[in-house]
Each structure stands twice: as structure tokens, then as C-alpha cells.
Amino acid sequence: MRMIDISQELFSCHVYPGDTPPAFELVKTVERDKYNLTNISMCVHNGTHIDAPCHFIAGGRTVDELDLSTFYGKCTVAKFSGVIGEEIGPVLETCHERLFLKGDCEISDTAAELIANSHVRLIGVESQSVGKADAPMSVHLVLLGKGIIPLEGLNLSAVEPGNYTLMAFPLKMKGADGSPVRAVLIEG
């Protein structure tokens, strides 16, 4: 069994424009205090993270209300480039409930509708947003409106297209609209 870490390192990760970048402060040290203690500050959408429906939908579920089975199970990685449209259709016919889109790609409104009407429960991308760079809201609304959870900020550079098992659990944060995750794919 081989595990592949597909998470970004948190303190050097890509940050969506306008989000608070992650930072840490060592407030206690072994040399001075006999132990280390670190404080962190960040946006819950930094690095590799999930979006909860309440991120874009009033009254939507928060991170602590999500079904944990969404974040563990069979996963398909498919490679795309550019704006994804109807060509996602054949992939949706054969993929698992968790689908990752590898490559420099963007989910169009058309692809979002196709995903929303499929069996997919979780959609993952390497960019910091499943939505279009200049207008991310429409894709989020379609996906989150159907209960499909985006997993954003993946690092799939060492992953070949194919089928894997995913483990990527969000932190238990009551009322949060997103959460960082440590995402791992398991081969075999």
C-alpha cells in the first residue's frame, strides 16, 4: 500500500486573492520556556481545503454538519486542461463518487451542471477554487446547491490518472464555512 500526500504545505501554500494568508508564531520555546508552543492564524480556505455549503448558500450546512463518509472512499483522478465543458460527460459515467480533476483546468457552468446531475459527492481541483478565476460564484452555487463538496488546492503533480482511495477529513469546527484538510490518496 502506497500513500500519496496530495496536500499543499500550509505556510507556503497558494492563497486565494484577498484571503488572509496562513502565519504562525512561536510563543513558547524549549530554550526559554522548556517547551514549544505555536499559535496560527489563517483563513479556513487556505491551502488544501474543503468548502461547506454555507460558504455560498444562506442556511447551508457548516463543516461540522457534513457527512464524514464524503471524505473517505474510492476516488477517480482524471486529467484535463483548459475550460472543461461537456467532455467531462464520459468521465462522469465511469468515475467513483469522488472525482479529482488533475491539471490546469477550470470547471465551466456547463460542466458544473453535468457534475451536479451525476453521482459525484466530492469534486477536487488543483486550483484554489472550483469556480472560474474571474467569477467563482456560479460554479460553487451549482455544486454546493446539490450538496457536492469542493476539495480545492490539491497537489496532484505526483499522481497518475486512475482510481485510488481518498482520506481527506476536515477539522471539526462548529459553524465554519470551510476547513483545511490533509488529503491522502492510497494506491491499491
Describe the structure.
- The protein contains four helices and 13 strands.
- With 188 residues, it is α/β, with parallel strands linked by helices.
- It has a single domain (2-14, 44-187), classed as Putative cyclase (Glucose Oxidase, domain 1), CATH 3.50.30.
- The protein has a nine-stranded mixed sheet, with helices on one face.
- Helix 3 runs parallel beside helix 4.
- It is globular, with a radius of gyration of 17 Å.
- The mean pLDDT is 96.
Features:
188 residues, alpha/beta, Glucose Oxidase, domain 1, nine-stranded mixed beta sheet, two-stranded antiparallel ribbon, 13 strands
Give a brief description.
By secondary structure, this protein is an alpha/beta fold. It is built from four helices and 13 strands. Helix 4 (137-145) links the parallel strand 9 (122-125) and strand 10 (149-152).
Topology:
Elements lengths: L1 E4 L17 E6 L1 H4 L3 E5 L7 E3 L20 E8 L2 E3 L4 H6 L3 E5 L2 E3 L1 H8 L5 E4 L11 H9 L3 E4 L9 E6 L10 E3 L3 E4 L1
Parallel strand pairs: 5-7, 6-8, 7-9, 9-10
Antiparallel strand pairs: 1-13, 2-3, 4-10, 4-12, 5-11, 11-13
Helix pairs in contact: 3-4
Structural class: alpha/beta
For the report, how would you describe the main beta sheet? 9 strands, mixed
User: Number of folding domains?
Assistant: 1
Order of helical and strand elements: EEHEEEEHEEHEHEEEE
Q: CATH superfamily membership, which one?
A: Putative cyclase
What is the CATH topology assignment?
Answer: Glucose Oxidase, domain 1
As residue ranges, the low-confidence spans are none
SS summary, helix count: 4
What share of residues are in beta strands? 25-35%
- Going across the biggest sheet, name each strand in turn: 1-13-11-5-7-9-10-4-12
